[in-house]
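Ticket #4471: structure output looks truncated?

Reporter: J.K.
Steps to reproduce: submitted the chain below (192 residues) through the standard prediction queue, then opened the result file.
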Amino acid sequence: EIKVDNRDPQIWRDDGGHKYKITAITPGKHQLVAKAVDKAGNVLVNSVEFVIHALTPPEITEYPPTLRQEEILTVKGKTIYPDSKINIWLQREDKEAKSTILKSDGQNTFTFTADEKLEDGIYKLWAEVVDKRGAKSEPSEKITFTVERPVLLRIGSRVAGFLAVIIPLIALVLLLIYLSWHWWYKFATMRK
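Returned output as attached by the reporter:
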């Protein structure tokens, strides 16, 4: 019979006093295989299937659906596990997700504030909870928000895009007028 050590849930002990260190196991179905070999070389193997249920994921309660580029992102949430670690994942469009670990407070709430201002684009954010034993939750529901450039930059880029099309078009029209006038003038001079 194997029992969990009350002081350290990652240590399991059998009836003979042997210690087994168990690393954190992900949620899902697992199989434990035990193999015993005596001094005569006889082998006995036994296994048992068990299921690790995931913790209840944290809930993100407050976030801005749209954020200006000069603002700092702040997200609030709650969990049912006191003094637990919260792993916040932030991902910009098709880039790799980055994680930040923070701790829930005494009221089982947490606040995530980004370290720096975010670039413009579409972002996804989600959270996972890890309790004192190392047990994990499934990811929370992913929230999506947009970071927009300041209004003046948006207007400026639209005007620049508009001018990038109009100026070459005007130059082409003026060139055509000049060439038409030039050929008409040469033709008129040759005719005289």
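Triage note (M.O.): checked the attachment and the full token line is present. The mean pLDDT is 85.
Status: closed, working as intended.
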